[in-house]
Design goal:
alpha/beta; 8-stranded parallel β-sheet; two-stranded antiparallel sheet; 31% helix; binds flavin mononucleotide
Length: 355
């Protein structure tokens, strides 16, 4: 027996999460035709004891793609593929959200017949794109027109509708890790002078319109938004991280968004102010923390009131029954980074549960 708070249920008006050990979204690059398949269904159903699974980043349109072999949610074939996954997870007693992904400038011309990826602004930056031919340096993107912004918001709504048709319990707007909504939010990548650039009220507009599109389909309580102020991945930067992100958090609170998925390392380097407590103060829905948590620090996050739930990433790759291992305080298997983004069953569906 255990009295771990991580394993206590979490009730909202909409959901009863059976525990607070949630599975973080993780790209596994195992769908060469961009369609989730039987193996995807097996992988997620093996992990259905999580209180909530958030799927790997799932592109909302052709233009959104920026990582090879990743699934989409914008064709009827893709909806059918994901239906196998949601059915398998539900049959195993789990809940699953689709993570809606647009890579923006982090994409590569190789995904677009040589055309430039799109972004708020044509700002040079340095990162790597995972193309079908392997990692390549990213390129300076093309600035989106106002019409393209509107059609991309429509793509978010269509993708949310597709996720609903595929049987997902909700969606997460991927506003983290330097992808398109974050590119609009932060003033490093966003140099626009129209309604989508300049002051934070304008820079937040894209993220909030994408969120509103998801809300129109699912209602606010089934929408999660993921943010990562302290993660500079994809060459991100902002002159006032705290001000920028607290504006976004307050705007999400005003919309009664159900879940805020806040990425910030459990241990920050000395001198760096943690923003998770600030966000937590401003948000009354389900507040999730992630990055580098384990059984002890995750428990502490719940016990101290910092968070309502914790997402675990790499630990869920190699420990499909992570909540049970936490309950038993059992030894944890370590994952193999070489198979994170390549391979078939190996490093994917072949990690055994406890016997
Ligand atoms: C293989 C792999 C793929 C990932 N793919 C995504 C993704 O698709 N979307 C996302 O928001 N984060 C992604 N992440 C980040 C994870 O969700 C998580 O934030 C990260 O693993 C840190 O959590 P952990 O310390 O519990 O592993 C990925 C991480 C890994 C290791």
């Amino acid at each position: 027996m255990t009295d771990l708070k991580l394993l206590t249920p979490l009730k909202t008006d909409t959901f009863e999460f059976k525990n607070r050990v949630f599975m973080a979204p993780m790209t596994r690059a195992r769908t060469p035709d961009h369609v989730a398949n039987d193996r995807t269904a097996l992988y997620y159903s093996q992990r259905a004891s999580a209180g909530l699974i958030i799927s790997e980043g799932t592109q909302i349109s052709e233009q959104a793609i920026g990582w090879t072999n990743t699934p989409g949610i914008h064709t009827s074939e893709q909806i059918e593929g994901w239906r196998k996954v949601t059915d398998a997870v539900h049959a195993a007693g789990g809940l699953i959200f689709a993570q809606l992904w647009h890579t923006g400038r982090a994409s590569h011309p190789d995904f677009h017949d040589g055309a430039l990826p799109v972004a708020p602004s044509a700002v040079p930056f340095e990162s790597q794109a995972f193309t079908p031919e392997g990692p390549k340096p990213t390129v300076t993107p093309r600035a989106m027109t106002l019409e393209e912004i509107q059609s991309t918001i429509a793509d978010y709504e269509a993708a949310a509708r597709a996720a609903q048709a595929a049987g997902f319990d909700g969606v997460e707007v991927h506003g983290a890790n330097g992808y398109l909504p974050a590119q609009f939010l932060e003033d490093g990548p966003n140099k626009r002078t129209d309604a989508y650039g300049g002051p934070i009220e304008n820079r937040a507009r894209f993220l909030l319109e994408a969120t509103d599109a998801a809300i129109r389909v699912f209602g606010p309580s089934r929408v999660s938004v993921r943010l990562s102020p302290r993660i500079p991945y994809n060459d991100m930067g902002d002159s006032d991280l705290e001000g920028t992100y607290m504006f976004a958090v307050e705007a999400l609170e005003a919309r009664k968004v159900g879940i805020l998925h806040f990425m910030e390392a459990a241990e920050l380097p000395d001198g760096l102010k943690p923003l998770a407590p600030e966000a937590r103060k401003r948000f009354s829905g389900v507040f999730i923390v992630n990055v580098g948590y384990d059984r002890e620090t995750g428990e502490q996050a719940i016990a101290s009131g910092l968070a309502d739930a914790v997402t675990f990433g790499t630990l869920f790759i190699s420990n499909p029954d992570l909540p049970e291992r936490f309950r038993q305080n059992a030894a944890l298997a370590s994952s193999d980074p070489d198979s994170y983004y390549v391979g078939d069953e190996q490093g994917y569906t072949d990690y055994p549960p406890l016997t």
